[in-house]
Amino acid sequence: MKIMNAEFIISAVRPDQYPDDALPEFALAGRSNVGKSSLINRMINRKNLARTSSQPGKTQQLNYYRVNDSVYLVDFPGYGYAKVSKVQRQQFGTMIETFLSDREPLRMVLLIVDIRHAPSKDDILMYDWLKHYEIPVCVVTTKADKVPKSQWPKQVKMIKQELSFHPEDRHVLFSSETGLGREELWDLINEVIEQTNEEAEETEEVSIE
């Protein structure tokens, strides 16, 4: 996908701060330091638009990035970082749950998992929560460049087993370093947007009849 423009819009903590232009939104969820910001930068071919940090737990808001004036990538706070206070974790949890439950423009959650490791308890809880509330999800196994290519199938199989991965869900193998999976992920995002638009048009036609 050709990126014409990409910009950081807002770090939001309350629903009244979320953009109101109704563009489709794709949220990135994952544990602290799993590489969500690096993935965003690779997706938009910019080095530092999404700020990366060696300090886990730094993202504490919902960071909105608008791409080509047509879609938002929404970076969630990382979960599972021990040095974040219990009160902060509860605040993050409430903010994310409210967003996932009520956010009308949300089209899919990209669950980011490090291919080198088994999913954490928080990863499994997030996946189960998304499935329970029937929120579309794609599991993105990132940092593929850190593992020999011959090990990819084994690691992906292990991660899917640990998550109790549903066969109807999508999976993308990704590397922010090499760009592996970038076009596949953009194709998926565009596919979901097109499908949603078609469903909306069909609903509108039925209501008119």
TrEMBL record:
InterPro entries of this UniProt entry?
G_ENGB_dom, GTP-bd, GTP-bd_ribosome_bio_YsxC, P-loop_NTPase, Small_GTP-bd
Domain EngB-type G residue range list: 22-195
Q: Name one Pfam family in it.
A: MMR_HSR1
Instruction: Using the record for this protein, list the coiled-coil segments as residue ranges, or answer none.
Output: none
| Cofactor(s) recorded in Swiss-Prot or TrEMBL | Mg(2+)
Instruction: Please provide, alphabetically and separated by semicolons, the GO molecular function terms listed in this UniProt record.
Output: GTP binding; metal ion binding
- Specify whether Membrane is a keyword of the entry: no
The record, for PROSITE patterns, names:
G_ENGB
The highest taxon in the source lineage is Bacteria
A single GO BP term for this record reads:
division septum assembly
On whether Transcription regulation is a keyword of this UniProt record, the answer is: no
What keywords does the record list, in alphabetical order?
A: Cell cycle, Cell division, GTP-binding, Magnesium, Metal-binding, Nucleotide-binding, Septation
Q: Which family does it belong to?
A: Belongs to the TRAFAC class TrmE-Era-EngA-EngB-Septin-like GTPase superfamily. EngB GTPase family.
Q: What does this protein do?
A: Necessary for normal cell division and for the maintenance of normal septation.
| Record NCBIfam families | GTPase_YsxC, small_GTP
This protein is called Probable GTP-binding protein EngB
Source organism: Paenibacillus lycopersici
Species classification: Bacteria, Bacillati, Bacillota, Bacilli, Bacillales
